[in-house]
Amino acid sequence: MLPRLLTSALLFSFVAFASAVPNIRILIEGDDYCNDQSILRIRQMIKEAKTLAQSAIDTLYRPNVEKSSGFVALFGPNANPKDIADKHFAPVNILPDSPAFVVTVKRLTENDLTFTCPPYGDPKDNKARMSTRNWVDGDGHDQRNNLIRIFPNSFEYDVPDSKGSHKVDTLPLQKAVEAVIAKTWFDEKAVPMAFTLVHEVQHADVIIGAENHCLDVAFIDDKGKTVKAYGLQQIQKKITNEEKVKNAQNYAWFAFLTLAQPELFTDDCQGNPGPIPHAAGLQEPLLVQDGIASRAAEDTCKYIHGDFLNIVDTDGEF
Ligand SMILES: [Zn+2]
């Protein structure tokens, strides 16, 4: 038998844990219901989001990661890697592998979070991939809800063909990682659902806590237009270091790159080697951060030789 003190400690931690974990479910009836096919994709998305989060956590707990070029470029020189791991990636693990179903989003509580699947025709569907709604966003008791709305553009995208275009499923995570390594990426429309889910989790207060809530940070472009920093170049160069740790998309890119370009976060890739020459056929180089002088690692930090992946900026809404 367990000593009494230990038993009550276990009981206490169970109770504390149980009340903190939200009921995360999938809507299967009524407006915006998810069909069987979507449910399978959502399960896969959650599994892959956990893979992304775990890769991010493993990387962030590595010694000296905060000095690596990749970390500095995505989060700035003063961010705390363990803090980022604990507050922004560990919570992804509370997502259930197979969420239970719910038949209506009415009369749910502050502690519920529901995945819904609005169809084509929804006002947001032509650009948005997903959208997160928190309890505090709604007014009136009928309007309050915690939702992650998964739009059709998360599941599939248009590929042009001789007859116009046809729909293709967005990429599974592994396919996207392989495409990056093979340098055939990046059709931004094909972005894995799990990438977007890691982004949405940063908006979802019931998962990460309101104190860790992230935004879609915007900047003013050359034409005076307000643009949200989603693209890989934008999240490094167009927003400040303080904004980087508040921008949901920086977390999605970080997690993805720890799988696809892990060398960016190693000891061999510490500091900034200076401007990267533009490689033929590529646009802007990946991961340039001004003003941080350092040694240039010779052979192991691929991107300093121009042997890097260039990912162009994405559009669409996250
Ligand atoms: Zn967002």
Automatic annotation (TrEMBL):
Keywords: Signal. GO terms for molecular function: metallopeptidase activity. Gene3D superfamilies: Collagenase (Catalytic Domain). Residues 1-20 form the signal peptide. InterPro entries: MetalloPept_cat_dom_sf. This is Uncharacterized protein. The lineage of its organism: Eukaryota, Fungi, Dikarya, Basidiomycota, Agaricomycotina.
